């Protein structure tokens, strides 16, 4: 009985202890929750006042532990909003699918030719051009030159206003790749050419090439050969009337017995050409259409010259002259209409620079000669003159209207 009473005395104490434990646990939970709330929402340090150092360390440790635990459990705060971005230009559209680059554009040709026929085809085609009745005949002006035409402005003035009465053909060195001025009558008038050497038979081949090109136009009825140093001594109407109405051709032909004449003959040319038939004359000719056709068709005398006229034979002074003397002497005047100065001894005629070109000099070339034209005596014998150097151009242009009567 006594033990039972003792136990009953002890039980209240035990109950009270359990109540205290529950209270402490509840108080601790509340404290943890409150502490966690303040540590996550308020940025301040927790200081425990009036506590022992040991208790401070314990509380601080507990707060840090609780703060770490709470930090790991709660989501991180949202980052501050970014400042508004300034509008940027739209990116360029993507490039189209890559294609192979186009081939480079070739440069425009600096030289244009009338055609691209070779000599054989050209001569054959020219020889077959039908003879037609032409209401307005033309004169073919054929220029055998090295390259540039320094006297072109003078010729431009000469031809001005007479379109349809002339044709122009230029045979220049193949190495000359410049083009003549677009506002000149020589622009686009070059023919396919081959190299030419002074005194060689390829000079005669160039002349035949020029004739063949001019013969392709049935309107061309007269054919005159010039160099880059030639000038006209009269106006276009005078020269046109003189040549179109002439009954003769103008190829200088004479027999020279010396070393520069018969001395150039080769006995290998016999029997087609005898020494007695060998002739000499100026290279610068004028002929009609009939003779021009026969020259390019020649298969008898030209091959002989090409084979045996070598070195110092100078075929340009002998082939056409000998051919005409043998075949067409009756219709030839045996004189040239292109004046040159042979007063200087040597292989080349005299040259005329600016100081030598005067009004008196040009007047003498026009009037100081006597010859025959269509059976009548005349003072108009030379229509052209040559060996005028580029320095003479300014004076020629100045005297063109006063003396030469053109422009």
From TrEMBL:
Localization in the cell: Membrane
Keywords, in A-Z order: Glycoprotein, Glycosyltransferase, Membrane, Transferase, Transmembrane, Transmembrane helix
Membrane is among the record's keywords: yes
Residue segments, region Disordered: 78-110
Record-level Gene Ontology MF annotations: glycosyltransferase activity
Entry keyword Membrane: yes
Membrane topology (UniProt): Single-pass type II membrane protein
One GO CC annotation: membrane
Segments traversing the membrane: 20-44
PANTHER family reported in the protein's UniProt record: CORE-2/I-BRANCHING BETA-1,6-N-ACETYLGLUCOSAMINYLTRANSFERASE FAMILY PROTEIN-RELATED (PTHR31042), CORE-2_I-BRANCHING BETA-1,6-N-ACETYLGLUCOSAMINYLTRANSFERASE FAMILY PROTEIN (PTHR31042:SF131)
Name of the protein in its database record: Uncharacterized protein
